[in-house]
Amino acid sequence: MTFEELKKMQKKYNRLVGIETVVNFIFVIMAFAFLFVPTNIEIWTEIIICIFAGISLLTWYLVRKSFNMEKYRKEYKAYFVEQNLKKSFTDLYYNHKEGLSKKTIEDTGMINLGDRYSSNDYVKGKYQEISFVQADVTIEKMGEDNYVTIFHGQWMIFEFPKKFNFRLQITDKKFGTASKGLTKDKTIKREIKKIITESDSFNKQFNINGEDEFEAFYILDPAFIDRIEKLKKENQGTYCFCFYENQLQIAINNNKDVFEPPKAFRKLDEQKELEKVHQEIKTITDLIDFLRLGQNVLKKTA
């Protein structure tokens, strides 16, 4: 699909959403107006409100029936996302409907999984010889009356040639209620220890738990600590890092999805969308570059 065809699809969507918005607005105004009519015609008030509610629901249904949002998202991602991913990574696999399995995250013991889990925009590839996976993840728990989001952001997995001989987790203290901390692995006789680094500022910002203090200090040298602190300062969201088996898993709780088309009433600008997608892809490459995941210290540890 060409960019001009995408623009036509988005314009149609904007028109339909505009109609829906106007109808809903009229319904709300009429509902409030009839609430103040004399009580002796209260039955007519209820009937008229029900009629407008029916019209509003019918409009909502017709808008969604008239526009194939899934096709629009698919074509948007094929045009803007997939082509740009191919330019940045080798061994690429991308599927906007797929996501990380709940078990993948559950096995790490990094965070609470709440009551409802969803994931999409699955990306798998290689950058600078580092294999990675990324997907959007949303985790919700049931509150008193409705679901409350406890994690909404990106989950990244970077793989190394060999397994780590320990588990280590570094969690931003502002990560939120999803934060869990490592639990003891029943298959091995290792206690989880709270680790204190030589950096007071780092200790104030992060909780560090691990099975091996020596290995933890080997990774958390002053340079690596400094890079994580800069990452926290210069980017949105809070982070949780976990060295697990042959992987470094990074959860970014930033309350957003990536690779999504603009919302209703926003103009589809080709250059702006290309730049937005480029910046979202750059988050992956920056993490590998900034944390120097290909450097010898991690490869030797692995």
Report on this structure:
This protein has 302 residues and is an alpha+beta fold. The model has no long low-confidence stretch (mean pLDDT 84). The protein is built from nine helices and nine strands. The two termini are 44 Å apart. The chain folds into two domains: 3-67; 91-301, no CATH class. It has helices at residues 3-34, 42-66, 69-88, 102-106, 200-205, 213-219, 222-234, 270-290, 296-301; strands at 90-95, 116-127, 130-142, 147-159, 168-172, 193-194, 206-210, 238-244, 247-253.
SSE sequence, one letter per element: HHHEHEEEEEHEHHEEHH
Distance between the termini: 44 Å
Sheet-strand content, in percent, reads 15-25%
Rg, Cα atoms, Å: 24 Å
The tally of domains stands at 2
> How would a crystallographer describe the biggest sheet?
9 strands, antiparallel
Spans of at least 5 consecutive residues with low confidence: none
Question: How would you sum up this structure in a few lines?
Answer:
The chain is an alpha+beta fold and 302 residues long. Helices cover 45% and strands 23% of the residues.
Characteristic key phrases:
9 helices, 302 residues, 9 strands, alpha+beta, single chain
Secondary structure layout plus pairing:
Blueprint: H1 3-34, H2 42-66, H3 69-88, E1 90-95, H4 102-106, E2 116-127, E3 130-142, E4 147-159, E5 168-172, E6 193-194, H5 200-205, E7 206-210, H6 213-219, H7 222-234, E8 238-244, E9 247-253, H8 270-290, H9 296-301
Antiparallel strand pairs: 1-2, 2-3, 3-4, 4-9, 5-7, 5-8, 6-7, 8-9
